[in-house]
Design a protein that fits this description.
By secondary structure, the chain is an alpha/beta fold. It is built from 15 helices and 18 strands. The longest helix is centred in the C-terminal third of the chain and has 20 residues.
């Protein structure tokens, strides 16, 4: 199996030519990347890698969809923790593995769900595609921008289907908003805003710890800690067993970016769908801190990532992105996109993963005096007023289950070989701003993104 680190080295040698350089790689093909041709009536065989909370949920959702539609079935499960692996394998009566590479060698496998800690996403997805599998890859897609670049290249090279698992992007709301913006209902786009707020009394991600589990555990308590770290693949530093890091990985930079990668992806990905096209940022800055959840009961630091985090980004087309979040206060900011001629409010309650009955377009108006009378007119002029009027417009939203819709889209694209709703290139544009924001926070500086070379700089990029 090809090691994706080889691809990383290759990309570094052709960095000056950007994504287009991957065309040289696309010429390379082998029987490994062909995959099974799936007929319209064939059931798609799915394996799940990572059987923790999210992986178990994904397995359940795919299984339910398969029973409802006969479109897919689970055939394999993998986790480095014996208890989690056995629990999912036994529930669905499928083969179980401790090593994902053995799962990828299962001959009847068509696709994998990857729901591991973030630092494994890139390598596992590339290995899966190199072995001819399509991929449902949980958000935030990857852990680094270098991995994002490699993943874009691998999808092009192998021609596999990759859907990023931010299921909200298959909700009707974003596509209705996209059409409203394309129809001219807000005019020139100026700013997108959103938030993700929670208020748990013990802080976010402090999930329960199985005290008996670990690398010395027997039977169901065994955890392959060295494999989980991935230090042999340069994915994270080698270190002694740490139960807090394993069970609560989202609090540590080595494996996650906390709020930025776990939560903001569900905001930035759908906004990229609303815009006229998915976009890389040109400038990113972030701030925040660990304001509340500072120490564990034993006095050790509770987390490395902030419990409060704010992001500001600028885009080349002349608009900004403003995001706010805290794990110590659950009051949201409405999700909206402001334009010069109107504002579209997609999520009045501010919770991007919840359905809404409608979205609201609010025309921008001004008062003017005519013949001694004051009247309202549209900022967009007579043509705007004739087309859209001056009053708020409510656009109904289909109330379909977004997870079911996202699975359906992924499986349908596996058959048609069309791009899914959250394809790798849209996913990359969302994850880059997240990774830059985390870097900005950690380094205390504003960062500028060089889209052509996939590099960050502390100075503006010359056109």
């Amino acid at each position: 199996m090809q090691n994706p680190l080889d691809r990383r080295d290759f990309l570094k040698t052709v960095g000056a030519t950007g994504i287009a350089a991957t065309s040289a790689m696309a010429a390379k093909s082998s029987s490994k990347t062909s995959g099974r041709v799936i007929g319209a009536n064939d059931r798609i065989n799915i394996g799940v890698i990572g059987c923790g909370g999210r992986g178990a949920y994904d397995a359940s959702a795919f299984d339910a969809f398969g029973k409802k539609t006969n479109a897919c079935q689970l055939v394999a499960a993998c986790d480095v923790y014996e208890k989690r692996k056995n629990r999912v394998a036994e529930r669905y009566k499928v083969k179980g593995y401790l090593d994902y590479r053995e799962l990828l060698n299962q001959s009847d496998l068509d696709a994998v769900i990857i729901a591991t800690p973030d630092h494994w996403h890139g390598k596992m997805a590339m290995d899966a595609m190199d072995s001819g599998k399509d991929v449902y890859l949980e958000k935030p897609m990857v852990h680094t921008n270098d991995e994002a670049r490699q993943l874009v290249a691998t999808v092009k090279e192998t021609k596999r289907i990759l859907q990023v698992g931010s299921q909200t992007t298959s909700a009707d709301i974003w596509w209705k908003a996209k059409k409203a913006i394309a129809d001219g209902m807000i005019g020139q786009m100026i700013e997108s805003q959103g938030s993700y707020h929670r208020n748990g009394t013990e802080g976010e991600w402090n999930w329960p710890i199985d005290a008996a589990a670990g690398p010395e555990g027997k039977g169901d308590d065994y955890i392959d800690w060295n494999m989980w770290l991935g230090s042999q693949f340069k994915l994270a530093p080698k270190r002694p067993w740490d139960a807090d890091r394993f069970f609560r990985f989202r609090k540590y930079w080595d494996y996650s970016l906390g709020i930025a990668s776990d939560l903001f992806y569900h905001v930035i990905a759908p906004l990229n769908i609303c815009w006229d096209e998915p976009q890389f940022p040109t400038k990113v800055m972030a701030t925040g801190g660990i304001y509340v959840f500072k120490k564990l009961p034993d006095g050790r630091p509770d987390r490395e990532v902030p419990d409060t985090f704010h992001l500001l980004a600028e885009y080349a087309k002349g608009h900004s992105l403003v995001l706010s979040s805290s794990m110590a206060n659950d009051t949201h900011i409405p999700g909206m996109i402001r334009g010069h001629e109107g504002t579209i409010i997609m999520v009045e309650h501010g919770q991007f993963e919840r359905n809404v009955p409608y979205i609201t377009v609010k025309p921008q108006v001004k008062n003017m005096r005519e013949n001694g009378q004051v009247k309202q007119v549209a900022i967009g002029g007579d043509a705007y007023e004739k087309k859209f009027g001056l009053k708020d417009i409510q656009i109904p939203i289909d109330q379909k289950d977004m997870m079911e819709a996202h699975i359906d889209n992924f499986l349908s694209c596996m058959r048609s070989r069309e791009k899914p709703h959250l394809d790798v290139e849209t996913g990359a544009r969302a994850v880059v701003v997240i990774n830059l924001a985390a870097q900005s926070y950690r380094e205390g500086r504003t960062l500028y993104w060089d889209e052509k070379h996939w590099k960050a700089s502390d100075k503006p990029i010359k056109a």
